[in-house]
Amino acid sequence: MRLVVIGAPGAGKGTQAKLLAKRFNAPHVSTGDLLREHIEQDDAVGRRVRELMDAGSLVPDDIVIEQIQPFVESGSFIFDGFPRTIRQAELLDGMLAARGTPLDKVVYVMINDDVIINRMAGRQTCTNCGSIYNTESNPPRHGGVCDSCGGALVVREDDSPVVVRRRLDNYHNLTEPIIDHYRSMGLVFEISGLGDIGDITDAIAKELPKR
Ligand code: AMP
How confident is the model at residue 211 (pLDDT cuts 50, 70, 90)? Predict the structure, then answer.
């Protein structure tokens, strides 16, 4: 399976990408998660991206491409958070064309900004496995503790309201144009990010090739 999941921060794209990865047995590749791992390890990449990420800005393409390259080469991936600009989409097109392994689908999870800002207000992320909860709509069974792995839940620095605004602006200006790029290739499946999480996954799965 080769899939790109696009949506604004907080649209539920990460949740859907994870569920689809399980269902289709393909690696879930969140560039945000991969970059946060580098920050945690405090390695050279982590030191280059920490400030940019905390500020809600995009990190340089060369770093991001390095993160996703092994998955493109493996021929199986569900990208979450990549590509984020037309340039990144074109770089990915080139890499896939060179291998003769086109995308199966681009899933566009749609939601409006007001809903996102409300959602992000209660968003908590597991420090261990990256699972995402919401104190209103999807609370953990025990406050502050991850249901899946028992890890501690925190509010990410870049989920603060001011930074969320910046991330949304980046999304509208830089990422949304990608949807038309993929539309012209006939790859886009659009779905509302409102509603039951499992129902949304089912609706997306129906559109994907059976393997
Ligand atoms: P996310 O977890 O997808 O919301 O990503 C968190 C942050 O990681 C973003 O705000 C960017 O700073 C950085 N990031 C993740 N993916 C990319 C990408 N494809 N291009 C540039 N920056 C990215």
Answer: low
- Nearest alpha carbon to residue 118 among 11, 7, 191: 11
Per-residue pLDDT averaged across 167-195, rounded? 94
pLDDT of 208 higher than 80: yes
Q: What is the pTM of this model?
A: 0.86
Answer yes or no: is the C-beta of 10 below 6 A from any ligand 1 atom. Answer: no
What residues have CB less than 8 Å from 88, skipping those under 6 apart? 61, 64, 65, 82
Ligand 1 nearest-atom number relative to CA 60: 21
What count of residues does the chain have?
211
CA angle 162–16–143, rounded 5-degree value: 60
The CB of 32 under 6 Å from ligand 1? The reply is yes
